[in-house]
Predict the 3D structure of the following.
Amino acid sequence: MRTLLIALLLPLAEIALFILVGSRIGVLATVAIVVLAAVAGVTLLRSAGTDAAARIRASMAQDQDPSGDIVRMAMRFIAGMLLVLPGFLTDIAALILLVPLVQDAAFSALRRRARVPGIVFDLRNPAAQPRAPADRVIDGEYREVTRPAPGRSGWTGD
């Protein structure tokens, strides 16, 4: 219900801001700001993927936890998408997502809640090597296999 309310009110708030800003600085300047924000968003989207991929690859090559780079890449991607959308509220939200302190706070909040099965990183010491979990259980089934009689291949058709 909250998402539906936001989806309905956001366009109305954006239109109200367009009218307010347009009446203060003029229509041409308002349109120019919106177009420049969209161009900045496209540029950010293009660079976010390649920059982050290189950082993630470097982190993994050094056996370091790449999750910080992944979160920062995701936030830059979301910021780029918000900049592409026309509107001042979405542009403000995008600029907030690009602040490094906000990215670090989001990463810290996600790191406390996220669990990755199979690999454990010492989050207090980011330079620590990944290790296998202590309570490692391997579940499986078995069956006995007997050798075939001499002269037979073991296939059921023999």
